Amino acid sequence: MRIRHNLIIFRRIIKAGILNFIRNAWLGLAAIAVMVITLTIILFSIIANSTFNYTITQITDKIDISVYLKDSVGVKDRDQLIEDLENLDSVKEVNYVSKDEALERYKEQNKGNLDLLLAISQTDNPLPASLQLKPTDPNNIEPIRQFLESEEIKELQSDETSYSGDRKTAIDKITNATSFIGRAGVVGVLVFAFISMLIIFNTIQMAIFNRRSELTIMRLLGASTNYIRGPFIVESVLYGIVSGVISIAIVNVLFSVSAKAFGASSLGILDIEFANVYFADNFWRFLGLQLGVGILIGSISALIATRRYLKFKTSK
Amino acid sequence: MILLDRVTKKYNKNAQALEKISLHVEPKEFVIIVGASGAGKSTILKLLTREEKPTTGKIIVGGLDYSTLKDREIPILRRKIGVVFQDFKLLPNRTVFENVAFALEIVGVGNKEIDHTVPRVLDIVGLKGKEKRMPRELSGGELQRVAIARAIVRQPRILIADEPTGNLDPKHAWDVIRVLEKINRYGTTVILTTHNQEIVNKLKRRVITIKDGRIASDKASGEYHS
Ligand SMILES: Nc1ncnc2c1ncn2[C@@H]1O[C@H](COP(=O)(O)OP(=O)(O)O)[C@@H](O)[C@H]1O
Ligand SMILES: [Mg+2]
Fold first, then answer.
1. Distance between CA atoms of residues B21 and B124, nearest Å
2. Which neighbouring-strand residues pair with A129?
């Protein structure tokens, strides 16, 4: 009986909320528009952030340090050096590339240049054997550098150590861009979320004003606060849901358009293809996020607005 | 059923609406409150429905002590009391049926029960066949009866009516009074305010006369001469 009663009340609140929503459509448009912007910024920030992180790992993976060994370095010294390097915390991985392998790679890379290949084949293999190091943290290779610069180790090397430094600069750039976009995203989201809340707040205030005589009558006839307030909350939650759906639809369209326009290419440091796949893979999660945030913004502002304008006041 | 003990109401510093009102109403009584305009009749009724709080004094209705009443308990109290407002407070864009059904809707009565109850109550107040009319298509007496129908549709133990005969011609005024007497016979406590001397004097009911916010007289089978 109690459950049936609550169900009836609940159904009526939902119904009244939907009616409010339809009746208020024009007013609600502004609320929805700003909320769509808010939600879209959130979504873009998340996707951009992941894409940048992805790009960073991609590049980081390619970063390495090459240590060239003199031909005179024996197996024992070589293995000792490898072991010492592996024992360094800053080194993730050590790969040995023998003279023969180096030559193979060189030939592979210069397939088209017959003169060069010919010249090489007529001499002894001029390429040194090398150790390819992967640092644990590409931003901190100083300990490795120090180790390699030490007198006795330098002794073993045929050439200057090569650090892929330009890659590090690229990573730094992306890292900066990411943190900037992250910060801008947070500020943007906060500003627009605040504006959305203000507009929804205003919309609900108007709706309350437009229906004030009906609300007064409801109250005098003994309607509960939740029954009076409920429809306005439902109305705002609907703003959130509609905005969430519109926002994700917009992003979806943008991605399919951009995929067509750029093919599977990258826009500078933004890897469109990755972003596209990432969006598609997480579509339902993103939809849930958009709806969740939309509903949250909507219901919070409606709660505040109704608390402020629907108080049970009896004057003393 | 209803108890007011030395109730005083000041709307503001200069306006003392009620001064030490004490009265007691038994269940199933039919009470008429009379007095000149501005005497404080409506204020008494508004204290009972908690539209206003007393400045001092004690009010107990149906066992509920208003001094310990929390704001969220006001709906509970208002569901126990049927009110016919002086200005009806009907919803202009809803039909007669919908206006009466409204009182049931907001407290969670099911649609089936609403469809069953509302026509019966409209029959009691003599509005059978006018279910689909809009308020603007009704006469003053009919509007008054819609307001009464809405007030009694939840079968309250107490019915309060503020000047239900005001602005009605004698015939329609008597129609409304007859309806209130009928409801009273079914066992509902009825409290009404009025100016209408002729009706008061013919009814031979309990009459409480208010003058300048005080009880001037309280007689079991009273009369009213302004
Ligand atoms: N909301 C209010 N604010 C200030 N004064 C009021 C208010 N309501 C009523 N009054 C004053 O209280 C007195 C009693 O009013 P009321 O109870 O409405 O009288 P009645 O119903 O007998 O005509 C009057 O002097 C009136 O002006
Ligand atoms: Mg009055």
1. 34
2. A69
The DSSP bridge partners found for residue B16 are: B10
- The residue with tokens 């330009």 is A166
Nearest CA to ligand 1 atom 17: B40
Q: Which residues 161-200 of chain B have a CB within 8 Å of chain A?
A: none
Per-residue pLDDT of B127-166, as tens digits, reads 999 999 999 999 999 999 999 999 999 999 999 999 999 8
Superfamily per CATH, domain B2-89+157-219: P-loop containing nucleotide triphosphate hydrolases (3.40.50.300)
ipTM: 0.92
A167 Cβ contact partners less than 8 Å away, ≥ 6 residues apart: A59, A62, A63, A138
Task: Out of B43, B46, B52, B55, give the residue to mutate to test ligand 1, the one with the largest number of ligand atoms within 8 Å of its CB.
Answer: B43
Model pTM above 0.90: no
Question: How far apart (Å, rounded) are the C-alpha atoms in residues A204 and A305?
Answer: 7
Distant-in-sequence, close-in-space partners of B25: CB < 8 Å, separation ≥ 6: B1, B2, B3, B31, B189, B191
Inter-chain residue contact B106 with A216, CB threshold 8 Å = no
Q: Which residues contact B70 (CB under 8 A, 6 or more apart)?
A: none
Among 3.10.105.10, 1.20.120.550, 3.30.70.3040, 3.40.190.10, name the CATH number for the domain at A64-163: 3.30.70.3040
| Closest to B116 in 3D by CA, of B132, B101, B138, B128 | B101
Residues of B in contact with A225 (CB under 8 A): 72, 75
Q: Where are the domains of chain B?
A: 2-89+157-219
Residue B107 Cα to chain centre, angstroms: 19
Domain ranges of chain A: 2-59+169-314, 64-163
Measured CA distances, A224 to A3, A219, B94, B105 (Å): 17, 7, 21, 12
Give chain A's length. Answer: 316
Beta-carbon contacts of residue A39 (< 8 Å; ≥ 6 apart): A243, A244, A247, A248, A290, A293, A294
Q: Which residues contact A234 (CB under 8 A, 6 or more apart)?
A: A13, A14, A16, A17, A18, A20, A21
What would the pLDDT profile of A149-191 be if each residue is shown by its tens digit? 888 888 788 877 777 655 666 667 777 777 787 788 888 889 9
